[in-house]
Amino acid sequence: MKALQCVKYGPNAEDALQILEVSRPKKVRRGCLLVEVLACGVDFVQTLMMQNKYQLKVPLPFTLGGEATGKVVAIGEHVEGFEIGDLVHGAGFGCFCEYVEFPAFGVIKLAPNTDPVFAPSLYSYVTAIHALKSRAKLEEGETLLVLGASGGVGSAAVQIGKILGATVIAAAPTEEKLETCKKLGADHVINYRTENLKLRVRELTDGEGANVVFDPVGDKYCEPAVRSLGWRGRLIVIGFAAGDIPSIPTNLLLLKEGSLIGSALRESNIYDPMGSLAERNDLVEWHNKGLIKPLVSKVVRLENASQAFEIIQNRQVQGKVVLVTDAYEKQYGSVVGIGSRL
């Protein structure tokens, strides 16, 4: 089967990545599903892994990919609730290929009429659910500030924040991206390249500040976000897409009894599997009710994956970029280049 592999570390996807023929899994392990991959979301983590900058180190060569949507083609022992042909979505490692094995416990079943390109991303949406509902304990009526609000995880956080009943302030670096945030349901928007983040948040909250900040960006944007917190506000650390890991003066938290809270979905899956299951169930329920609208910037064939990496590295993405396999185009037709349905 075809697989997108990182064959050498580096910043240039054309040099670092190759489509190679690898062995298809022959026997499905106990408790697992074998899935024919139709579509895969490309996230920022994959660009870090390609450059050997991610905290989890994988020896070369390795297959990239953190999530995939496809159809079940084989079922391992002791698996219940799935049938051959079910449309499912799973997350893990090595998903950018034509067939992938997932532990059944972590897989969500999708409605059969779901377009795999627009499947709700476990990586993006459950990250947002875990951060906002489980870690920050965001309450109805509170104010949520989302940094990087037009990106894959940020756009999910805007939608989850609205579902949980918050007033959402979306922050992004361009007017085009802010318009997208408005379409996603944001109540207010801030251009954090041209506006003072702390002052604008204070203006929009009548001087109170934000109750919760969702921060997947880090770098120089984190400290102004901490300063924008209100009394007993919580900043949720998701990642550092802007580059550097920030250093925060802790007196800023002392004076307002604020909190910095980490949110690590992978570790939560390990240490609190039932909590993670509940979060996935929330995602399926909200998606089936039409409350979630996955945002897709671009669709690219698996063979042209370097284009997807370039879009992400150049900060041109809104929502996510999706790779599709030959199997997708045989079943659904060509959608290459098509973007969001917002």
UniProtKB/TrEMBL annotation:
Query: What PANTHER family does this protein map onto?
Result: QUINONE OXIDOREDUCTASE-LIKE PROTEIN 2 (PTHR43677:SF4), SHORT-CHAIN DEHYDROGENASE/REDUCTASE (PTHR43677)
Q: Which residues form a coiled coil?
A: none
Specify the species: Aplanochytrium stocchinoi
Q: Which GO terms describe its molecular function?
A: oxidoreductase activity; zinc ion binding
**Superkingdom per UniProt:** Eukaryota
What protein does this entry describe?
Answer: Enoyl reductase (ER) domain-containing protein
| InterPro entries linked | ADH-like_C, ADH-like_N, ER, GroES-like_sf, NAD(P)-bd_dom_sf, Quin_OxRdtase/zeta-crystal_CS, Zn-ADH-like_protein
Residue stretches making up the Enoyl reductase (ER) domain: 12-323
